[in-house]
Specification:
295 residues, alpha+beta, Beta Polymerase, domain 2, five-stranded mixed sheet, 7 helices, binds guanosine-5'-triphosphate, binds magnesium ion, (P)ppGpp synthetase, GTP_Pyrophosphokinase, RelA_SpoT, NT_sf
Length: 295
């Protein structure tokens, strides 16, 4: 990432997910003898051994009372395996978002420039996982999810400028412990409807008591303008009660908006480069060679 010369634009960072960390501003002086409290962001989680035991008890009760067929051990195993796997996806999502926060804070410290405006992260819901597996005619097993779905853990990185998108993506991709599995540059090659974003799927090691589990995380890098556009287009796509004529009229308008936003962005990027210095030949990251075994 380049070092900007001037001050960065003021941003309105969405700090809601990071609220606890605001209690510890970097400027606060802590004497070497004084311990500072670190808040562990602990959430109530399902203990899979307890769940396994409870499911067996419930199944026995149902079988005795209603004559229901007993739940097979393999079905209980599948449920607990799924919960275990989701915990690994969550870990992978945190690993990547921490790396991104560190990159952003390095830029604040060194260059007074914040490349990331804000981030969003999510784990795919069980319903969405099942829907996608069915849509792709894949078996509903945890192994099949692991082998075929690379967007169970997802992060959206919203940057101020296109240059920031490529800088952040390239700095993250260059880190030696993670692998770039797939790159889709919809900024260089926008989709027909006008959608623009840079999608990168990473494999990141999550270290558990059983060792390192390389786990995929989909990261969508985009600018504020691209995000603004994508949110409305997404809303339109799921608005099913619109007449077809209206839908196609709005789709065409959105395509025009995508082009206008791209022009505005290019002009603002030019001004920003003049103020802060122009980066050289920014391109999307490339896929790594041989993939490590995914968890
Ligand atoms: P999925 O099966 O949907 O995951 O598609 P894919 O595996 O071919 O992935 P792709 O990288 O094309 O898109 C993944 C994600 O990017 C989607 O789930 C959306 O969040 C976002 N996305 C892709 N295309 C569009 C689009 O046209 N409009 C909007 N609003 N979002 C999009
Ligand atoms: Mg997806």
């Amino acid at each position: 990432m380049r070092a900007p010369r001037g001050a960065s634009p003021r941003r309105r960072r969405d700090r809601a997910p990071y609220a606890r960390r605001r209690a510890f501003p970097a400027s606060r002086q802590v004497s070497p003898l004084q311990w500072s409290i670190v808040i562990l962001d602990r959430q109530t989680r399902v203990n899979t051994n307890e769940l396994r035991a409870r499911l067996s008890v419930i199944a026995d009760e149902l079988a005795q009372r209603d004559g229901a067929s007993p739940i097979e051990t393999s079905q209980v195993d599948a449920v607990t395996e799924f919960i275990d796997q989701m915990q690994v996806y969550e870990g992978a999502m945190y690993e990547i978002s921490t790396k991104l926060e560190i990159l952003d804070s390095e830029f604040q410290v060194h260059f007074s420039h914040d490349p990331i405006h804000h981030m969003e992260r999510r784990l795919k819901s069980i319903d969405s996982i099942i829907e996608k597996m069915r849509r792709k005619h894949l078996p509903l097993t945890v192994r099949s999810v692991r082998d075929n779905l690379f967007d169970v853990a997802g992060i959206r990185v919203i940057c101020n400028y296109r240059d920031d998108v490529y800088s952040v993506a390239n700095y993250l991709s260059a880190q030696s412990d993670i692998q770039v599995l797939r790159v889709k540059d919809y900024i260089l090659n926008p989709k027909q409807n006008g959608y623009r974003s840079l999608h990168v799927i990473y494999a990141v090691p999550v270290f558990l008591s059983s060792g390192a589990h390389y786990t995929p995380v989909e990261v969508q890098f985009r600018t504020i303008a691209m995000d603004y556009w994508a949110s409305l287009e997404h809303a339109l796509r799921y608005k099913t009660d619109l007449p077809d004529a209206k839908l196609s009229e709005h789709s065409q308008t959105l395509l025009d908006c995508a082009r206008s936003l791209q022009n505005v962005e290019t002009q603002m990027q030019t001004i920003h480069r003049d103020i802060n210095g122009a980066p050289q030949g920014l391109q999307a990251p490339v896929t790594d060679g041989s993939p490590r075994h995914l968890s």
